[in-house]
Specification:
heterodimer; A: 313 residues; alpha+beta; Chalcone isomerase; 8 helices; 37% helix; B: 155 residues; Cytochrome_P460 (chain A); Haem-bd (chain A)
């Protein structure tokens, strides 16, 4: 009786091991292969900068992926391959010039801020590849680098004659249905910002619902109906006293809270209107995906960056 | 199978949460404009301040007019200006952007009709409590500074 039980048990273990092994073999044999397409337009930066990026980011964000043996073992191989594919789609240091020239600098600030927030390299990857972690000293090198290239571009500022308002005939409407409106001019200013990173000055307005949510600390999530508007000007060069004043109007950006309607972008509807003719930004509704991807960095404040804050206790 | 693998990894994945990013709203820094309009704004990296200039209808209308940069503007009776100045701090959520911190001061300039031309009143509500030695002289400077600001271009 006892012997029979033991025998059954042994059989079960053997069968289970067999199943596991077979699944592993199937998974392993079918593991996605990661190709390295040719490098077409490599990112060029100072050597100390590229050295950091190569070590920490190139496994995913380049065509020079160099995986360790354990990255190729199922089931990890699946996750790694998916990450590399997604990472290359987002941006690729080997195809750097596929990013429009005007956006390359912004991407570099994005890169620095993703590291600053501890989001890149991906934490689960960094855990198994400790060497890929960016040290605080290296992050400082990267911060200094992006600051220096922006200063070069914006130190002249926009001192050209400021172009005055012209009337827009129709109400501009974003492809996702969000319309431009003037009423924000009667709303409260919730914050104002100056960005040395891209040489702009901003004022951020909130409607009554948004201001109330801030006052009551009910922003996780923000209530439906909250609207936040950001007006952006290109900065002038600092005057003799160091005051940086707004130059030409640049664009206006709107976030509308509707948890149901905009569920695919964390409940926020995004719109951007550029220039005094308020040209709507985005060719397809999916433009908002790139907005929310970056706004994920402000997840702790309900995906909004520019609110007055104090450290939480 | 894909979703199973995703699930395994979702549970393994570490939560990348930096404590410095744990923030609470600080609505005390929001200025109650009592219906005044934004005229313009500016920031200063040397003094680490950021400011918004508000005004009533008259102040906004006059600040928006074309003007000769060489003739200093004097006030027009009826104008009310409020210049709110905040500390400038690094945005904790984005390296590269500076955002306002706490309110430092609110300066109010009121222009009324005097017997011989406009009468200008200046008041400063200063939370930093710094006493200014040359108050009278600097008040005059502040008034002309406020008058000199041109309205930002809005769509």
């Amino acid at each position: 009786m006892n012997a029979l039980k033991r025998h059954r048990y042994r059989n079960a273990v053997a069968i289970l091991a067999g199943i596991l092994f077979t699944s592993f073999v199937v998974l392993q044999v079918n593991s996605p292969k990661i190709e390295n397409p040719p490098v077409t337009s490599e990112f060029h930066g100072p050597e100390e900068v590229t050295r950091i990026l190569k070590r920490s980011c190139y496994d995913c964000h380049s065509n020079e992926t160099n995986l360790r043996w354990y990255d190729k073992v199922a089931p990890f191989s699946y996750k790694v391959a998916a990450d590399v594919e997604e990472a290359r789609k987002r941006f690729n240091f080997s195809e750097w010039d596929s990013i429009p020239k005007a956006d390359q600098e912004g991407k570099l600030w994005y890169i620095v801020n993703m590291i600053d927030a501890g989001r890149m390299p991906l934490p689960e990857y960094a855990a198994t590849h400790p060497n890929a972690k960016v040290t605080p000293a290296e992050l400082t090198i990267l911060k200094n680098y992006v600051t220096s290239i922006s200063q070069k571009h914006y130190e002249l500022g926009d001192t050209a004659r400021i172009v005055e308002q012209k009337q827009v005939a129709q109400v501009p409407t974003s492809i996702n249905g969000i319309q431009y409106f003037d009423d924000y001019k009667n709303w409260k200013v919730i914050s104002s910002t100056g960005r040395p990173d891209n040489g702009t000055s901003r004022i951020i307005y909130g409607n009554d619902i948004a201001v109330k949510a801030l006052e009551e600390n009910k922003i996780l999530p923000w209530p439906d109906g909250a609207v936040i508007v950001k007006v952006v000007w290109t900065s002038q060069a600092p005057d003799a006293d160091g005051n940086v004043k707004p130059g030409n109007f640049n664009n206006i950006q709107i976030m509308v809270r509707d948890a149901k309607k905009f569920a695919s972008t964390e409940g926020w509807g995004f719109a951007r209107f550029s220039g005094l003719d308020l040209k709507p930004y985005g060719k397809t509704v999916s433009f908002a995906t790139s907005c929310i991807n970056c706004h994920q960095l402000a997840k702790g404040t309900g995906f909004v960056f520019d609110i007055p804050t104090k450290p939480a206790r | 199978m894909k979703s199973l693998i995703a699930l395994i990894f979702a549970t393994i994945a570490l939560d990348a949460c930096h404590d410095s990013r744990k923030l609470a709203p600080n609505p005390e820094t929001i200025f109650d404009d009592h219906g005044l309009h934004v005229i313009t704004s500016f920031h200063n990296d040397r003094t680490r301040t950021i400011a918004v200039l508000y005004g009533n209808d008259d102040a906004l209308a006059n600040a928006g007019k074309e003007r000769d940069a060489h003739t200093p503007r004097v006030g027009t009776p009826g104008e009310v200006f409020k210049l709110v100045t905040w500390d400038l701090k690094q945005n904790p959520l984005w390296f590269g952007s500076n955002i306002n911190g706490n309110v430092q001061s609110v300066e109010t300039v009121t222009v009324s009709a005097g017997e011989s031309g406009p009468a200008i009143d200046y008041a400063k509500d200063d939370s930093s409590q710094k006493k200014d030695e040359n108050a009278v002289l600097s008040n005059a400077e502040r008034i002309s500074f406020i008058f000199a600001q041109r309205a930002s271009v809005f769509p």
